[in-house]
């Protein structure tokens, strides 16, 4: 099921040693490099504050609005440098981000929200309608709430809306920031199935930042682990799943298998891979 | 390397709760105060007092008051001019009708403004954001009309313009620009300290909580009514005192236009440019708004450019507008934040991060 | 009765004129979430451009026809407003994406200063004339029904018609076109709009250009009434209660708000004013708006203010 | 310093710029003329600097502070509001304030207002003269007539009320008041009320955009423009030019002949404009506001000249000395003629107690294209105005604890 | 209470629910119905919460879980039904009253005070207990300062407990999501509540962090006997730490009971758990 990044697969996204600074003073990424091959699913893992969101923002060029900037390194999409493109130009090239924390358009209805996702599409109404139906098929819950203003839908519904909206653009690559957050377990499963589905059927590439490591590593081909703004470990998903450290800290199955949350004895001093 | 807080450990919460926990900052403040109270009165010219320092101080005070409302409590007000006017006219009436001493007139003016402010603050319990601006604008236009139309407000002055003279503070005449300056400075310092205490205390946190997310604030037990109205009250008190000072000390005689909507806008400008939710921001903002036009006015002179008055004035407008946009781009949180960032950099210097 | 009706009509017409200015505010707010304090300055700028071009172009190109002069000036003024919109996007808005509304509001105040200065520098600060042939003399209707007839201003009637037309077009644009939808999305969340590929820059140039054109229309009508001069920018203050009452995000709201404010302030001035010494219409308009807001905090037709936890 | 400095407070921007610009240009042009033609006042060159107030009192104060130490000639603030704001300061600083045709009406009393010079007329004299003209039209009786005052709702607009009330009591007409909230872009309700009440005359104390708005609204509600009388600040060319025929019949009061042509204009052309030194552009020269500006500068220059006669020709005068000159102006018809103002204005004679110098005015009417003189000169009714001046200046003195000086 | 003593106490705690004394019913929700226009968010829901227990509410997205909490603490006014809290019955309460009675709450979509520092955010939780008047505060005099310091000490302990010391003075807006959740919890804890309503406190956390969070919740529950009502989508967490579980679906209650009972419930499996769990 997992595919190793290999020479035959074309490199899609190449992030090379980027440094990101917020507000001119807060250094968050300290030289992050990663590579996403065309048609693969790559997971970005790490603790809260490790810099996953920041990395995704750097790729999709949404840093600017957060008063952040890439100060070193380069980002290339199929060999083309993209640091200076606008987010809209990136979407034109098929790269779209699902932002952390949903960011639905509060005053628009669910359906209008989804339709805005198709803003850049030029393949006609019919095709857009078709995609819309596809999204509704993925998330039936959205269909029942299609005329509600997004602000008045539940957290999970908004999350589905945000993902659906991105899919409406017919993207080549999706940057998913914590897609599973706030979703009910079987929806989480469904979301990952959708990811897999799009990946295999339509060849969409995914870069996902996820806290649900278990799920992420189950579906991803390759994974990177970030700590404090650095990549501390990378490898094929299957390999990471077997790694003892990963097991202990991210899967909660270190040592003698899965431990009850009730039995966790104390706050662990986090073990760091850093020197 | 001089600006470091290394080695300054805090043993008690009391010391951590100081306004300026860093020693160097405290020293800088004392130096600043010494300069302001001692050196400036000896060195500055009359022009500088009257045209720069006094308006700066009074407007800073008004901005401070407004900042409590807008910056800390998040209630946009375009009626600051009205609150100043109420302060000024109330103080005027207390002075001419009851012959109250200056300090009491000022406080009376502040109290009148407080009542007025709370009254026009009541809609804030229901109306929010820009929509609230309309309530404060109602206050503005109502006051414009009221001070113009209702005769006893101006002590039956037929033209509606009024004046005061012969100011004295605890028996000391406040006549020369330097004396006026010192009076304003003292008042401003006292208010700045009181305001700082409020905003870093429980009530300040209530204001900010209401500003940032009022539903959540209510859930943790903050009463929006109390928080909002107290912000209106405190803010209009300070603004009212500033209005009275503006009228008594700066203008001497005035007509209602002195507190028009332009003044309201100007103060809002100061607060935002200076930094919302920051006491020092009021001072930065006032300095910016008072000094910049003067500077822009003088620059062509210094450069010997033969600009006509009109051209110079239009250019001044353009540059002023452009600078506002520029500063917002550089730091949307105002000059005070810019200053903090600069300080943070200084702390790290010579390392970039 | 006749007088009451006259006052009422007069007020409604005046309200339409306010609505025309208010429309500019609504448009930009609805489409970018920015409350554009520069709207008044834009009205002035546009009117100045129109007035001066219609004066300069005939001289420059050597023709006499007033109609031609007006048409050419109109085109030139629209072009100028488009350039202005482009500059505003380039130099200000683009740099402020994702900032809090208050910072953007402030920026528009800065822009207002800039435009005021630039407008007067380029076009002069004396009084100029716009003559698009608006009829100035009154017309009398229903002379049979009421003694002395009812007085109606033709100029106001024309203005009202133009406003209504603009409103219909803009409402359709916002509700029915994908661009309209994108504009509303931008107003809700700049970042999210960017993230799904809505090109903020282009959108903003479009919106501000439309805002500029609306300002131009308002400027022409007010300018032909009052003469074009700095004070034109102050009509924005009359439009403020209108926008707020109608709802910041509602195009038809601007019209309804205008009608209410217009009629309300005239009636109040005439029937309540004398008791209070007169001159009350200015603040009364705001108090009226305030009264409505207490019932509907989002204005009559504004989007509901959302607060959810 | 070998030059005599003249501070020029002006507003070339903002709401009132259309009035302020020609006014400011006129002030400057005349100073340039004196320098170019006469080489200054008895050889003392005049220097000057403008400071932009935008009609804002606070900015005006700053300008005053900025320029007050530079020299000694009077401040013409161009604004009633700024005059209010600087009057006390000027008293303390001993600086001359010249307010020709505006300012505080009671400041004509030189015993209390030592440093203020509301030359040539105040709003009281203006209102009085207008009433005189109306009286004449109505053949001497205003019993039972209705007169409305439509005014800028500010101290400026309110100044004439006191006098009009006195006049109303005397003549038996009914005075109704219509305040218009500045800026006065929308006046429909006011004019609808006027249409309803049908006053026989409307006096218009307006400023800036309020004037064209009022005339337009009068037109739209069908109120006869012939029945409107405006104060001189609402009677300039720019106020009605664009309305053209729509304003035909509109009356305004003036303190000078509208005559745009006098010797001073010829000199101005010859010595200043032909040398490309002029301040004004286009057709401003000869407009009411421009001429008024020149008059103000002329009065300043003559005060300096008068002072030099006493304190030493060819010397730079101090403020104290200029004040003396202001108080001892005696511009007879002959002198005015020599100065090139013979056609423009009437003689002026000031004294220690009389700081106004002249209280004559006349009416002009717009014929759709230009202003025409339609009345002879009226002198304001001293029996009404003098007690009012006394009363209010005494009140001012009491408020300010000023002991009026003796002028005898 | 700080991290080191905590470790000891937790080590002593027995892993089974019986270790704590579950008391009487403290909060009872009866026949609550809530509609928004045509949307029926809640239909006739009843359940109770006992003192000291950890009560979980689960259900698919849009089931009405958050709305339920909003009803309990007075943000929404249900059209029907009543809530009994410690013997007193209310149809609708305002948020302030609820807070005064000792109910604290965290939010699903972070509702922190963005412009304030972590410390100040948590200090707001102490608001109800701070009594000095505004004048004393302005002078920061005697009682005002003493009070401020006393509460600061309490808050510092919470900060230690939640291990967010380094961020004390950071504006919360800049913190990563997971830490913001912790601050949210801290603010609620600062109220020293009797009942703590937690809306998806562990969303967006990795296993390690969830373990920490569970520890915090269990400790609060143990140490202070705080009753906890918890909404959570991570079944592992819910099954492990809760005493009883309510299951909502489309605004209706479809299950109520111990974790094991709920896990076996057909309806629940179909509507929520799916097959994998
Ligand atoms: N706008 C901002 N301004 C300043 N600092 C920021 C900003 N956004 C993020 N940071 C800082 O950058 C660091 C990394 O944050 P980021 O959001 O990328 O983490 P993350 O890995 O996505 O965490 P989480 O899993 O909690 O979402 C954090 O320490 C955070 O405080
Ligand atoms: N203020 C409101 N106005 C309109 N509808 C609302 C409002 N609040 C909630 N709803 C609707 O009520 C239903 C229940 O919402 P709620 O937020 O309680 O769901 P939830 O169970 O918390 O879901 P999730 O797990 O996704 O957070 C949803 O369909 C939502 O759209
Ligand atoms: Mg993140
Ligand atoms: Mg929820």
From TrEMBL, chain A:
Keyword list, A-Z: Amino-acid transport, ATP-binding, Cell membrane, Membrane, Nucleotide-binding, Transport
Every ABC transporter domain range: 13-253
Domain of life: Bacteria
Listed Pfam families: ABC_tran
Entry annotated with the keyword Magnesium: no
Protein family (similarity comment): Belongs to the ABC transporter superfamily.
Presence of keyword ATP-binding: yes
Name this protein carries in UniProt: Amino acid/amide ABC transporter ATP-binding protein 2 (HAAT family)
GO molecular function, one term: branched-chain amino acid transmembrane transporter activity
GO terms classed as biological process: L-amino acid transport
TrEMBL record, chain B:
Pfam families, sorted: BPD_transp_2 (PF02653)
Main location: membrane
GO annotation, cellular component aspect: plasma membrane
Subcellular location(s) per record: Cell membrane
Keywords: Cell membrane, Membrane, Transmembrane, Transmembrane helix
Lipid bilayer topology: Multi-pass membrane protein
Residue stretches spanning the membrane: 27-45, 51-69, 76-96, 102-122, 129-147, 178-195, 232-253, 265-298, 318-340
GO molecular function, one term: branched-chain amino acid transmembrane transporter activity
CDD domains noted in UniProt: TM_PBP1_LivM_like (cd06581)
Protein name as it appears in the record: Amino acid/amide ABC transporter membrane protein 2 (HAAT family)
Organism: Pseudorhodoferax soli
From TrEMBL, chain C:
GO molecular function per UniProt: transmembrane transporter activity
InterPro entries listed in its UniProt record: ABC_transp_permease, BCAA_transport_permease
Record has Transmembrane helix as a keyword: yes
GO cellular component: plasma membrane
Pfam family, one: BPD_transp_2
CDD domains: TM_PBP1_LivH_like (cd06582)
Main location: membrane
Membrane topology note: Multi-pass membrane protein
BP-aspect Gene Ontology terms: amino acid transport
Location within or outside the cell: Cell membrane
Residues passing through the membrane, by range: 12-29, 34-54, 66-89, 101-123, 157-174, 203-222, 242-263, 275-295
Domain of life according to the entry: Bacteria
Keywords: Amino-acid transport, Cell membrane, Membrane, Transmembrane, Transmembrane helix, Transport
Family the UniProt entry places it in: Belongs to the binding-protein-dependent transport system permease family. LivHM subfamily.
Descriptive protein name: Amino acid/amide ABC transporter membrane protein 1 (HAAT family)
From TrEMBL, chain E:
InterPro entries reported in the protein's UniProt record: AAA+_ATPase, ABC_AA/LPS_Transport, ABC_transporter-like_ATP-bd, BCA_ABC_TP_C, P-loop_NTPase
Taxonomic superkingdom: Bacteria
Keywords assigned by UniProt, alphabetized: ATP-binding, Cell membrane, Membrane, Nucleotide-binding, Transport
Residue ranges constituting the ABC transporter domain according to the UniProt record: 27-275
Gene Ontology CC: plasma membrane
A single MF term (Gene Ontology): ATP hydrolysis activity
Keyword Cell membrane: yes
Protein's name in the database: Amino acid/amide ABC transporter ATP-binding protein 1 (HAAT family)
């Amino acid at each position: 099921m997992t595919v190793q990044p290999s020479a035959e697969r074309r490199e899609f996204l190449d992030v090379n040693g980027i440094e990101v600074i917020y507000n001119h003073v807060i250094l968050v990424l300290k030289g992050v490099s990663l590579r996403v091959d065309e048609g693969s699913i790559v997971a970005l893992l790490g603790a809260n504050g490790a810099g996953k969101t920041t990395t995704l923002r750097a790729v999709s060029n949404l840093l600017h609005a957060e008063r952040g900037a890439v100060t070193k390194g380069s980002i290339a999409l199929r060999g083309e440098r993209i640091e200076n493109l606008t987010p809209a130009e990136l979407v034109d090239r098929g790269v779209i981000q699902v932002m952390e924390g949903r960011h639905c358009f509060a005053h628009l209805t669910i359906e209008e929200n989804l339709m805005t996702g198709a803003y850049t599409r030029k393949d006609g109404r019919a095709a857009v309608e078709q995609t819309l139906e596809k999204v509704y098929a993925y998330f039936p819950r959205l269909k029942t709430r299609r005329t509600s203003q997004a602000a008045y839908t539940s957290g999970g519904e908004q999350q589905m809306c945000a993902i659906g909206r991105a899919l409406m653009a017919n993207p080549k690559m999706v940057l998913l920031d914590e897609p599973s957050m706030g979703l009910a377990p079987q929806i989480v499963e469904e979301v990952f199935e959708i990811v897999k589905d799009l990946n295999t059927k339509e060849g969409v590439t995914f870069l996902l930042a996820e806290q649900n490591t278990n799920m992420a590593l189950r579906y991803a081909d390759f994974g990177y682990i970030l700590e404090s703004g650095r990549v501390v470990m990378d490898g094929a998903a299957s390999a990471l799943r077997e790694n003892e450290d990963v097991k202990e800290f991210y899967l909660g199955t270190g040592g003698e298998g899965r431990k009850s949350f009730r039995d966790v004895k104390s706050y662990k001093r986090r073990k760091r891979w850093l020197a | 390397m001089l600006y470091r807080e290394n080695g300054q450990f805090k043993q008690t919460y009391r010391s951590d709760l100081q306004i300026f926990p860093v020693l160097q900052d405290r020293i800088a403040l004392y130096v600043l105060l010494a300069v302001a109270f001692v050196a400036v009165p000896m060195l500055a010219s009359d022009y500088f007092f009257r045209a720069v320092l006094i308006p700066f101080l009074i407007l800073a005070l008004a901005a401070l008051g407004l900042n409590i409302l807008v910056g800390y409590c998040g209630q946009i007000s375009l009626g600051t001019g009205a609150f100043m006017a109420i302060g000024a006219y109330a103080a005027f009436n207390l002075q001419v009708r009851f012959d109250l001493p200056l300090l009491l007139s000022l406080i009376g003016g502040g109290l009148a403004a407080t009542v007025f402010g709370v009254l026009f603050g009541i809609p804030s319990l229901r109306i929010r954001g820009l929509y609230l601006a309309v309530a404060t604008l109602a206050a503005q236009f109502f006051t414009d009309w009221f001070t113009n139309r209702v005769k006893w407000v101006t002590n039956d002055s037929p033209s509606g313009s009024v004046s005061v003279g012969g100011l004295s503070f605890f028996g000391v005449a406040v006549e020369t620009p330097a004396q006026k300056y010192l009076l304003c400075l003292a008042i401003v310092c006292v208010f700045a300290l009181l305001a700082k205490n409020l905003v870093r205390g429980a009530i300040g946190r209530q204001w900010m909580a209401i500003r940032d997310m009022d539903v959540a604030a209510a859930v943790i037990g903050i009463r929006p009514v109390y928080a909002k109205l107290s912000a209106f009250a405190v803010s209009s008190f300070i603004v009212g005192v500033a209005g009275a000072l503006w009228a008594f000390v700066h203008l001497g005689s005035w007509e209602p236009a002195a507190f028009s909507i332009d003044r309201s806008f100007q103060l809002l400008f100061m607060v935002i440019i200076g930094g919302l939710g920051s006491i020092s921001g009021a001072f930065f903002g006032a300095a910016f708004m008072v000094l910049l036009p003067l500077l822009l006015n003088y620059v062509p002179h210094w450069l010997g450019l033969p600009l006509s008055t009109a051209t110079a004035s239009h250019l001044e407008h353009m540059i002023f507008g452009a600078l506002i946009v520029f500063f917002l781009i550089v730091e949307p949180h105002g000059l005070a934040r810019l200053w903090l960032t600069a300080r943070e950099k200084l702390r790290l210097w010579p390392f970039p991060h | 009765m006749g007088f009451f009706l006259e006052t009422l009509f007069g007020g409604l017409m005046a309200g339409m004129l306010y609505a025309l200015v208010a429309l500019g505010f609504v448009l930009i707010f609805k489409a970018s979430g920015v409350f554009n304090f520069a709207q008044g300055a834009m009205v002035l700028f546009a009117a100045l451009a129109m007035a001066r071009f219609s004066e300069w172009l005939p001289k420059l190109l050597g023709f006499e026809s007033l109609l031609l002069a007006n048409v050419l000036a109109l085109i030139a003024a629209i072009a100028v407003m488009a350039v202005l919109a482009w500059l505003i996007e380039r130099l200000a808005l683009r740099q402020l994406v994702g900032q809090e509304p208050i910072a953007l509001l402030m920026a528009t105040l800065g822009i207002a200063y800039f435009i005021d200065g630039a407008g007067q520098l380029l076009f002069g600060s004396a009084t100029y004339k716009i003559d698009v042939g608006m009829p100035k003399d009154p017309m009398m209707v229903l002379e049979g029904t009421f003694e002395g007839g009812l007085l109606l201003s033709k100029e106001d009637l024309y203005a009202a018609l133009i406003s209504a037309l603009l409103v219909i077009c803009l409402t359709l644009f916002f509700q029915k076109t994908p661009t309209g939808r994108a504009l509303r999305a931008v107003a809700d969340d700049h970042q999210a709009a960017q993230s799904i590929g809505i090109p903020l820059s282009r959108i903003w140039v479009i919106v501000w250009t439309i805002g500029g054109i609306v300002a131009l229309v308002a400027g022409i009508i007010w300018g032909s009434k009052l003469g074009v001069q700095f004070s034109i920018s102050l009509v924005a203050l009359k439009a403020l209660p209108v926008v707020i009452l109608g709802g910041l995000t509602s195009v038809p709201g601007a019209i309804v708000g205008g009608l209410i404010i217009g009629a309300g302030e005239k009636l109040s001035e005439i029937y309540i004013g004398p008791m209070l010494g007169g001159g009350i219409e200015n603040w009364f308009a705001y108090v009226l708006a305030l009264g409505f807001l207490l019932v509907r905090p989002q204005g009559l037709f504004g989007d509901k203010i959302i607060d959810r936890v | 310093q070998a030059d005599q400095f003249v501070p020029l407070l002006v507003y070339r921007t903002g709401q009132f710029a259309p009035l302020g610009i020609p006014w400011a240009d006129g002030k400057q042009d005349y100073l340039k003329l004196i320098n170019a033609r006469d080489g200054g006042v008895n050889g003392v060159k005049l220097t000057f600097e403008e400071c932009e107030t935008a009609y804002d009192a606070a900015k005006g104060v700053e300008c005053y502070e900025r320029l007050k130490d530079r020299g000694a000639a009077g401040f013409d603030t161009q604004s009633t509001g700024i005059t209010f704001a600087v009057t006390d300061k000027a008293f303390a600083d001993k600086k001359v304030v010249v307010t020709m045709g505006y300012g505080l009406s009671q400041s004509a009393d030189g015993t209390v207002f030592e440093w203020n010079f509301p030359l040539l007329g105040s709003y009281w004299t203006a209102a009085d003269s207008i009433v005189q003209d109306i009286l004449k039209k109505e053949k001497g009786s205003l019993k039972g007539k209705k007169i409305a005052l439509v005014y800028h709702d500010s101290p400026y607009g309110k100044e004439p009320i006191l006098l009009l009330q006195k006049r109303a009591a005397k003549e038996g007409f009914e005075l109704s008041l219509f305040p218009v909230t500045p800026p006065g872009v929308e006046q429909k309700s006011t004019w609808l009320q006027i249409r309803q009440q049908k006053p026989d005359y409307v006096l218009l104390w307006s400023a800036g955009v309020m004037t064209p708005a009022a005339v337009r609204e009068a037109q739209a509600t069908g109120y006869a423009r012939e029945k409107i009388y405006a104060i001189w600040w609402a009677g300039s060319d720019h106020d009605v030019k664009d309305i053209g025929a729509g304003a035909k019949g509109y009356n305004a009061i003036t303190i000078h002949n509208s005559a745009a042509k006098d010797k001073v204009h010829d000199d101005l052309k010859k010595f200043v404009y032909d040398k490309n030194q002029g301040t004004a552009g286009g057709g401003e020269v000869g407009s009411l506001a421009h001429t008024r500006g020149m008059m103000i500068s002329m009065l300043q220059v003559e005060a300096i000249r008068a002072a030099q006669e006493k304190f030493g020709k060819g010397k730079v005068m101090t403020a104290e000395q200029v004040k003396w000159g202001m108080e001892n102006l005696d511009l007879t018809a002959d002198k005015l003629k020599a100065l090139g103002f013979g056609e423009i204005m009437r003689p002026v004679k000031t004294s220690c107690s009389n700081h106004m110098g002249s209280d004559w005015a006349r009416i002009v009417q717009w014929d759709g294209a230009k202003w025409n003189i339609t009345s002879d000169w009226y002198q304001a009714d001293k029996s009404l105005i003098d007690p009012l001046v006394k009363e209010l200046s005494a009140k001012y003195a009491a408020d300010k604890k000023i002991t009026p000086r003796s002028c005898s | 209470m700080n991290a080191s003593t905590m470790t000891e106490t937790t080590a002593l705690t027995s892993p089974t629910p019986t270790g704590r004394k579950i008391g009487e019913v403290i909060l009872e929700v009866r026949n609550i119905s809530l509609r928004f226009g045509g949307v029926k968010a809640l239909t006739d829901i009843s359940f109770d919460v006992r003192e000291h227990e950890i009560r979980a509410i689960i259900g698919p997205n849009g089931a009405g879980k958050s709305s339920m909490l909003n009803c309990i603490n007075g943000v929404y006014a249900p059209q029907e039904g009543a809530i009994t809290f410690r013997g007193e019955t209310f149809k609708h309460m305002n948020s302030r009253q609820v807070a005064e009675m000792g109910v604290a709450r965290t939010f699903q979509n972070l509702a922190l005070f963005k412009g304030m520092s972590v410390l100040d955010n948590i200090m707001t939780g102490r608001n109800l207990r701070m009594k000095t008047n505004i004048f004393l505060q302005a002078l920061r005099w005697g009682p005002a300062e003493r009070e401020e310091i006393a509460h600061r000490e309490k808050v510092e302990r919470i900060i230690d407990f939640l291990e967010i010391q380094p961020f004390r003075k950071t504006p919360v807006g800049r913190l990563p999501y997971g830490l913001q959740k912790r601050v949210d919890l801290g603010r609620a804890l600062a109220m020293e509540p009797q009942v703590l309503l937690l809306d998806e406190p562990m969303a967006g956390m990795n296993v390690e962090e969830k373990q920490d969070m569970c520890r915090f919740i269990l400790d609060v529950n143990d140490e202070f006997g705080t009753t906890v009502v918890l909404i959570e989508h991570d079944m592992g967490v819910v099954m492990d730490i809760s005493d009883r579980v309510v299951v909502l679906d489309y605004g209706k209650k479809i299950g109520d009971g111990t974790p094991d009972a709920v896990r076996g419930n057909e309806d629940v499996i179909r509507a929520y758990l799916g097959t994998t769990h």
